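Hi all, long-time lurker, first post. I run a small reading group and we've been trying to get comfortable going from sequence to structure in the token notation. Rather than ask abstract questions, I figured I'd post a concrete chain and ask someone more experienced to write out its structure so we can walk through it together at our next meeting. Sequence below, copied exactly:
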Amino acid sequence: MFFLKLSYMDTHEYDEERDLLMALEKKEVKAFMRFYKEYRDDLIIFTFCLLQDVQRSNQVVDQLFERLWFEANFKRITPPIHRFLQVEIRKSCQH
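-- Answer (accepted) --
Happy to help. Here is the structure in token form:
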């Protein structure tokens, strides 16, 4: 029983994120607003830990969201979304 419960949880754990990514792929503005609100604050904190600069952290995070919106290639993102975003932030901070 316990195994079946875990398997069910694993397959449905990221359903909301998958739905969000599909909406983003369709360029739904409400989905992007939700995406931005959901992840921006945590990314600012993460970026600040890397850069130790509040203004630059805000800039890097906003540039990431802007790039993602204009590229509109959300199919390449697989849940969990936060992992993808952290990798992208690390890349941006290396430049």
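A couple of things your group might point at:
Residues 15-94 form a domain with the Rna Polymerase Sigma Factor; Chain: A fold (CATH 1.10.1740).
Helices lie at 2-12, 15-25, 29-51, 54-71, 81-94.
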